[in-house]
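Supplementary Methods, section 5.1.

A reviewer requested that the exact input to the structure prediction be made available. We therefore reproduce it here, unchanged from the version used in the analyses.
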Amino acid sequence: MNSALSAGGQPLTIEAAARDATWLAHRYDPGHDAVHLLPVPRDVHRCATFLTDEYLPAGVTPLVVRRADAIAAAPPTAPLHFIFHSAFCCSTLLARAFDRPGWAMGLKEPVIFNDIIGWRRRGGQGPDMAQVFDDALTLLSRPFGAGEFVCVKPSTIANALAPAMLTLRSDACAVLLYAPLRTYLGSIARKGLDGRLWVRTLLTGMLDDKLVDLGFGPRDYLAQTDLQVAAVGWLAHQQLFARLVATFGPARVRTLDSATLMADPSAAVSAFARLIGRPLDHQALAEIAAGPAFTTHSKSGVAFDARDRAAEVARGDMLHADEIEKVAIWAEAVAKAAGIALTAPAPLLE
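The structure derived from this sequence is encoded token-by-token as follows.
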């Protein structure tokens, strides 16, 4: 656990890796209280859909180090901000927009958060969990370049950790991104069996994390259709986002829906830049809006703009329109009974 080889085959020390943001804090092993650092250069970050093994280069050996050793060697951290999201809402696209050398770097769904939420769900025996989480945030906020901040987009799986992230980093801001209800339901329907299984897995985790309070009993979910389960998860996220705004205030936390983001990407990025105190000039905003984040598909990399996205949505919704509408009406009734607003408070764009 004391050394590894660099990309050039030379011995690499823990100190050198811990000081270099190229060595991503990829995994956490609670059994050994160790962090797996994986070499992920900036161009690999740029190309990877998510920072998961599925999308990162295969066959790369991590440097496994004791958490305490990694933290002891870590450099001063960069400012850290967040994109929390309720899935299928252009969050990957927005995170890609923060890959701008000299200004920011965006991290797309680092797995270390999933490891920590899984550890917590299992009972979290071993090191102090709050300290482990704090150290994970420190390792993710190592600067990629001079003057840059880091914008982290955790996986939806880790949203129960959002209050802790904002508490541990009192200077951090966050945008809470979501798709409008019918848009979200259409996204799940278009993904077929995979999407329908995913929302049930997501809801199971949210129930474990005690994020669902809609008046249903455990057996009720078995009687609900897949899209009803999807709607329950969407509503629970609206509850969570409203609590985050109420707890941390609109000076730090704002909400944004995907329709608004895609209608004017430049305005959305500009508003978030002002929120975190790192405003951009008109030229930089125009370059981001015209760049790959908003002109290529975030998953496949092919040319794909707002018109293509709207056409894809329309085609899919035609096939599932009846189911989507019925479930949306049901969800609106559930939201009314539970006092949940369908439009989240404190919008990023007023």
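Residues 76 and 150 are 13 Å apart (CA to CA). These observations are discussed further in the main text.
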